[in-house]
Amino acid sequence: MTNFDVNLNHYSDAEKIFAKQVLDWFFQADEKSFLTVFLNPQEQKILLELAKQIGFSVRFGGGYQRAENKRALIGDHKENDFQISLLQLNYASHYVHLHHSTVLGSLLHHGISYDRIGDVIHENDNWQLLIDSSLADFVVENVKRAASKKITFEKIPFEKILNPQSDEKEKEIVISSQRIDLLISQIYNFSRAHAKDLIETGQVMVNWFEKDNTSYLAKLGDVVSTHGYGRIRLITTRGTTNRNKIRLKIGIVGKG
């Protein structure tokens, strides 16, 4: 049996819960290669860090080269099937405008969990979905609406995958501190008190994990997601103003 004596002290409480799940996957992969659910970028990072400590082989696949959400194959085996299907979303594009949240919501409404869904990608008005192959037929047969809009899904070969567009828009802001309560209140134009409420009720995530510390100082590279609003990526600082405020370049997806 592989030695799984690893140090988890540098992870947050939420990350430790995931790290312990990873260790359980390693136990299973010690006997036979193990295929995970879809993992967000921070989960991929944690899995890879632990795999390096222990000496496990890990490969990631998300259906296309620039995928954000990926499944992992753990173990020194020759298995290469990440069991991902590509679905095309069909709808009346001349009359209906879709959003990422609308497409995702159509799946969650049918009880499909986030970790069984890969990237939702689009190119102009064309939308596609990467999903756990075991759920592809269910989606095709049962998911017929996104909110009030009629839609259908069909399975298509990966040769037809889109060249997805990024929804992120870059902008520069001036801010007195990189505290997440101040950051989201300024970007989304609501009160600091409301920002604190959102953080304390688990509606704000930093790097895909809940962050309930309102005074947390976001670092460059952090991704701050706020439920119902979107997400902010801290790209770089551009010095300070005469009043010692920070010039911060950010990427925004959603409102802002």
TrEMBL record:
One GO molecular-function entry: RNA binding
One record GO biological process: cell division
Domain RNA-binding S4: 178-240
Keywords: Cell cycle, Cell division, RNA-binding
Coiled coil (UniProt feature): none
UniProt key word Transit peptide: no
Gene3D superfamilies: 3.30.1370.160, 3.30.70.330, RNA-binding S4 domain
Entry protein name: Cell division protein, S4-like domain
